[in-house]
Amino acid sequence: MDYFNYRDGHLYAEDLAVKELAEEFGTPLYVYSRATLERHFQAYDQPLQGHPHLICYAVKANSNLAVLNVLARLGAGFDIVSQGELERVLAAGGDPARVVFSGVGKQVNEIRRALSVGIKCFNVESLPELERIDSVAESMGVIAPISIRVNPDVDPQTHPYISTGLKANKFGIAFDEAPAVYQRAASLSHLKIVGVDCHIGSQITQLAPFLDALERLLVLVEQLKEQGIQLQHLDLGGGLGVTYDQENPPSPSDYAKAVIERLGQTDYELIFEPGRSIAANAGLLITRVEYLKQGEEKNFAIIDAAMNDLLRPALYDAWQAIVPVEPPKPGALPARWDLVGPVCETGDFLGKDRQLALLPGDLLAVRSAGAYGFAMASNYNTRNRPAEVMVDGAHRQLVRQRESYEQQMAGEQLLSR
Ligand code: LLP
Questions:
Q1: Nearest in space to 21 (alpha carbons), one of 41, 1, 35, 4
Q2: What UniProt keywords apply to this chain's record, in alphabetical order (predicted)?
Q3: 28, 138, 236, 319: most buried by Cβ count inside 10 Å?
């Protein structure tokens, strides 16, 4: 559920007409709804009241400071994968004691920074990383809290590029090897074992793979207990899918309730790392039609947003709804349109074969663009990245200015000789 609705044929973001936002801030423009972000966070948080838990929003999905700030104010934790994300969390008022640090390639300087601000936990993905964290902690005279990311080898039945919990993936430590890695961790003097984590993939639309992964983790937890290793938390990662088209994923509250039911009276702290299910449907990408090109085989609407602004369609062949911002104007041409950007690549499209009635100058909204949208934007073709606006009721705030050419070129130099 989101707060982007039509009123008399005009698309609104909460209480503001999207057309007016586009006119005020220009296009392409990312528009986020604070109420939607809050609602999605609460959908995880509420059912877990009464059980120790922490919702660590996956910063990679959308790392705008205002988005992080909305969540920090609700008491969210954060799942980070780089020092850059950590700096953003800190700048947004996030509590470092609620940060978990995932990712296969943590560098020494990143580990040091995370230790110096006192994060909650490192989600360790390999034996060499475990040893590295121990030695950095030793050099600083501190103890590093760690969890081992195990690979439960369950098939999340999602796109191969975003499934991460299979044996063939680069992530985590094989289930069967995990006890030995825990033993090694227990033997290292500057580590404190606090938990176990997994993340099996993204855009998962059924509960079964998550519950299968939980079963696997619980087997491991028991095994570790027998070996004298007592964990404090279970981190189930992120991955819950959203509705882009016809998908009907379980809601965050269904998911949270199912997990609580399985865990019963155990007092392990539960951690989730949702990204998409919090941010995706809290954002729109607004774009304007520049030209219409009706060809013999295809009708192209050339829009001012491109693959550099929203990469998912080009990269994963992802489908996102593209809807009109206003009722069709007199003379609009109804047809099936390929919505393509100005970037010089055949793969530069945001949607194909979309039935719309269009005229040049029309505004369109790409839905479900709040996650892995701006966060994956680039400057390809030297295009400035879009502006971002946060809507809160009838209030709106520019939360990132449109990038400028000066900003893009800052830091570059002509040759000195
Ligand atoms: N935790 C870890 C360790 C992750 O690797 C990820 C996402 C998450 C949490 C958050 O997963 P989510 O709840 O958002 O599914 N760019 C792709 C998605 C890549 C997801 C990578 N890992 C896309 O646009 O579909």
A1: 4
A2: Amino-acid biosynthesis, Decarboxylase, Lyase, Lysine biosynthesis, Pyridoxal phosphate
A3: 28
Is 121 a residue of the active site?
Answer: no
Q: Determine contact, residues 131/176, Cβ cutoff 8 Å.
A: no
* Mean pLDDT (whole number) for 137-144: 98
Q: In CATH terms, is domain 4-31+280-409 a member of 2.40.37.10?
A: yes
**Given 56, 121, 198, 344, which residue is catalytic?**
344
The rounded Å distance from CA 226 to ligand 1 centre is: 33
Q: Is 273 marked within a binding site?
A: yes
pLDDT of residue 256: 94
Report the atom number in ligand 1 closest to the C-alpha of 102.
3
Distance 321 CA to ligand 1 centre (A): 20
Q: Is 12 in the pocket of ligand 1 (CB under 6 A)?
A: no
User: Is residue 276 marked as binding?
Assistant: yes
| CA atoms of 25 and 399, how far apart (whole Å) | 11
Here the tokens at position 25 are 């801030």
Q: Mean pLDDT throughout 18-47?
A: 98
- pLDDT band at 168; cut points 50, 70, 90: low
The reply to whether 312 sits in an annotated binding site is: yes
Sign of CA dihedral 72, 75, 76, 77: positive
pLDDT of 267 over the 90 cut: no
What's the pTM value of the predicted model, to 2 decimals?
Answer: 0.97
* Strands 77-80 vs 99-101: parallel, antiparallel or unpaired: parallel
Q: Give me the chain's average pLDDT, please.
A: 95
Every domain range in the chain assigned CATH 3.20.20.10? 103-272
Structural tokens at position 204: 């998962």
Q: What is the pLDDT of residue 161?
A: 55
| pLDDT tens digits for range 328-358 | 999 998 999 999 999 999 999 999 999 999 9
Distance from C-alpha of 38 to C-alpha of 318, rounded to nearest angstrom: 25
Point out the ligand 1 atom lying closest to the alpha carbon of residue 61: 14
Region(s) of the chain under CATH 2.40.37.10: 4-31+280-409
201 lines ligand 1 (CB under 6 A): no
Question: CATH class for domain 103-272?
Answer: alpha beta
**Predicted pLDDT at 296:** 85
**ipTM of the modeled complex:** 0.99
